[in-house]
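sorry for the late reply, my laptop died twice this morning and i had to redo everyting from scratch. anyway the thing you sent over, i finally got around to it. pasting the sequence first so we're on the same page, its 76 residues, then the predicted structure underneath. double check i copied it right bc i was rushing
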Amino acid sequence: MNSIIKIARKTGVTVLGFLLIFIGIALLVLPGPGLIVIIIGLIVLSWEYEWAKHHLHRARNAHKKALAKIKSRRKA
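ok and here's the structure:
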C-alpha cells in the first residue's frame, strides 16, 4: 500500500510540474508571467527529481548574476 502512495505522489508531482512548465512556455509568447510559472514548475519537479534541483540552482545563479549586473550598471 505504501508503494502505491509513493508512485501516485511521484506521478502527481511529475504531471503537475511538467504541466506548469508547458503553461509557462506558452505564457512566454502569450501575455502572462511565463518565467515565474516555469520556475514554479521546476520547484514542483525538484521535490522528486535531482535534475530539476540542478536546473533550479542554475536558474537561481543566473538570477543573482543578472541582479548584480543591473546593480552595477545603476552605480555607473
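The chain has a mean pLDDT of 91.
thats about all i looked at so far, will dig more tmrw
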